[in-house]
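Pasting as-is:
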Amino acid sequence: MNSQLISVQTAQYKPDYKLHIHFNDGIDKTVDFKPFLSQSQHPRIRAFLQPERFKGFRVEHSDLVWGDYDLCFPVADLYQGEI
């Protein structure tokens, strides 16, 4: 059994609110964030529909983060390719 904790190594923006994410176990996933952002009723989340704001993500402590943790997602969900 592999006891390695899964973490985000790198993430690259792809058109239309998608991110190509590389995990520490060598797996790559492309996650589409547009449905989540578009369907949210919360104005702080919908603000990330501004392309430049969405592109402002970073990998911090093996997590994918926007701003001061204004937006972040569980690594397990990202690993499954969905949010």
